[in-house]
Amino acid sequence: MAIPRYLYPNPGDDVDEYVDRLTAWAESTDVVIGSPGLELIQNELGTAVVYKPRNAWDHPFRVSASSSRVQVALGFLNDQIPRINGVTVDGIDANEKPVDVPQLAIEPSESTASWVCLAQLVDDDGEPVAPADNPEALTIVHVTGELDPAFIQGGYPDDMGIGLQPLARLSWRDGNLARVFQIVYHNLGHRFKQGTGDRPGRHFFFAQG
Amino acid sequence: MRDDVQDYSFTIDPTVDSIAVSAWVEIVERVARNRPVRFDVLEKGRFRHPWNVALRWSADNERWESNVEPGFVNGLDATIRLDAQDAPPETVARVQGSDEKPPSGRVDARLTEFPWFPLSRENWRTVGTDAIGLELEKVPDYFVKLGVREGSTINQSPTGVSVSTPDNTEGPRRLLRAQEVILTQDRPALVPTIGSDGGFATIDFTLSPPGRERSFVTFVPSWEPKAEIEGLAMLSGATDQPFEQLQIATVYLLSMDGEPDGADVDESWTPFLAHKVFWNLNYENNIDLKATPKFERYPVPIPLAGGVAQPVVDALVDGVTDAANAALSLLNDSKVVGKFWII
Predict the structure, then answer these.
(1) Which of A142, A189, B177, B240 is deepest in the core (most CB within 10 A)?
(2) Residue A27 to residue A5: CA distance in whole angstroms
């Protein structure tokens, strides 16, 4: 594993700053496991990369994560591929060039759970916005805290045109990622139901193909 | 520190405000070499789909116990209610720090906390061989081939009661027990009642909030999908059950050959599972909780005779007037319906 250049000081540099950098680097884990069958597990005992040979199913939207990053396997929502930082989750940039598979930087959750979600943007007519028209139209987001409590009784309540579908639940223990629970195993479809009056619109996601 | 772990600790003298770059680089490289990354191969690992049910015999407690692979409904892991003494430590710690305290010393363990749920002896229903009844449950073909026989049927006639047992004296004779694993999602219920306003009837809708927020798993002796209740029936006193359910699986225990009829299950029995649901779920009902008023009143221009509701119900049943038809339509449209789908 390459050592980051930012850890190497020049004579005269502030020692404290480099101690901070080294500490942060030592506490992070650069290994993000995305291959089928491999999972990264972190707890108070340390960090383990676990290989489960009979769990090697590279299904759509498979979520891999460390305490600081998330990676999502190729999956389609309404035949579109979600993006992280403007790059499709399978590593194609806005210029249609293959690049490194993107990883979403995340902050450790202070609670015991967080969610890696698909975020779909719809226009005023409730039609999904295509990523080709807006790179932020279909993205991967990390939700800490709680999901909208109204979600449990229906589609995800619309928030400024955006609806969420949890792909995986991350379990945290003392600020470290303890486990990833996959929620979605299929490519998905999405429909939007307009709200009425004060009632928010609702986003409905479903397995497709 | 474990004996097999080398101590690479070092200290930086806080009174010294400089360090040689070469020394620093050595520190960095030492940390890099010893970053806490480990590779394990779990040969016994296997994919368990959401809602996958596992059974085990607990020798300590002398009972069968079950574990359900975490399943999610609308992004939240389902729960299972059990005695606090049987709950995982993670559950106990979480509940102690919250107000999620069901009565009677029971707690709702989340499936992501991997609880092992004790299966009540009383919940095992008898299938085949030693079952006796007027209408018997059919023994699945799979178990017939393993030696489970049809049960005994009670026949009632004007001359008396008789019991007929299939003539199956040859071959193995094994007993079968079963329980159903059910997923329940509580939902609000919209309860219509007849009121009055100025001599005419009104239909008042009261919204009762859902019981538990998260979906939950239960083990029951038997299960049937609940019957759909028409709005009109609710006016006549029928109660809308405020939940939706799915059958997750059937768990079976199969005895050894030769067990006496009525035998209790123990560690000699063999578990079998028949799963019905394999994926996580999304759910919705047709009420928007955020916005639906808890109380609404709709006038129904049907004369209210003496304040008695039955004439109104009768008028609705007859459906002879536009008002009655409109009221009936309103009642049926007001039904709360929920549904699950895979995600």
Answers:
(1) B177
(2) 17
DSSP string, B324-338: HHHHHHHHHHT---E
Pairing of strands A46-51, B37-41: parallel
Q: Judge whether B184 and B129 are in contact, CB under 8 Å.
A: no
For chain B, counts of helices (H) and of strands (E): 6, 21
Q: Look at residue B299 in the predicted model and tell me its pLDDT.
A: 58
pTM: 0.78
For B27, the token pair is 């520190």
Residues of A with Cβ-Cβ distance to B29 under 8 angstroms: 3
For residue B136, CA distances in Å to B123, B125, B222 come to 17, 12, 13
Q: Which residue of A has its CA nearest to B112?
A: A181
Write out the two tokens for B1. Answer: 């520190």
Judge contact between B325 and B315, C-beta under 8 A. no
| Mutation site for A-interface testing, chosen from B68, B215, B343 by largest number of A Cβ within 10 Å | B343
Q: Which of B323, B307, B234, B233 minimizes the C-alpha distance to B315?
A: B323
Give the pLDDT confidence of A91-130 residue by residue, as tens digits. Answer: 999 899 999 889 999 988 888 899 999 999 999 999 999 9
Give A22-55 pLDDT, tens digit per residue: 888 877 665 554 455 666 666 666 666 776 665 5
Residues of B in contact with A28 (CB under 8 A): none
- Tell me the C-alpha distance between B29 and B12, whole Å: 16
Percent of chain B at pLDDT above 90?
43
d(CA B48, CA B297): 49
Chain A interface test: which of B13, B37, B283, B292 (most A C-beta within 10 Å)? B37
Q: Is B290 exposed, middle or buried (0-12, 13-18, 19+ CB in 10 A)?
A: middle
Asked if A53 lies within 8 A of B41 by C-beta distance, the reply is: yes
Amino acid in position B7: D
Phi then psi dihedrals of residue B223, to 5 deg? -155, 140
Residue type, B235: L
Q: Cα–Cα distance between B70 and B79 in angstroms, integer?
A: 9
Pairwise CB contact (< 8 Å): B28 & A22: yes
Q: Which residue among B38, B188, B289 sits closest to A49, beta carbon to beta carbon?
A: B38
**Residues 301-340 (B) with a CB less than 8 A from some CB of A:** none
- A4-9 long-range contacts (CB < 8 A, ≥24 apart) are A7/B28, A8/B21, A8/B25, A8/B28, A9/B21, A9/B24
Phi, psi (deg, nearest 5) at residue A152: -65, -25
A75 in Cβ contact with A187 (< 8 Å):
yes
Interface test with A, best of B16, B277, B282, B296 (most A CBs within 10 A): B282
CA dist B35 to B24, B28, B31, Å?
17, 11, 6
Distance CA B54, CA B116 (A): 9
Alpha-carbon dihedral of residues A76, A79, A83, A89, nearest 10 degrees?
Answer: 40
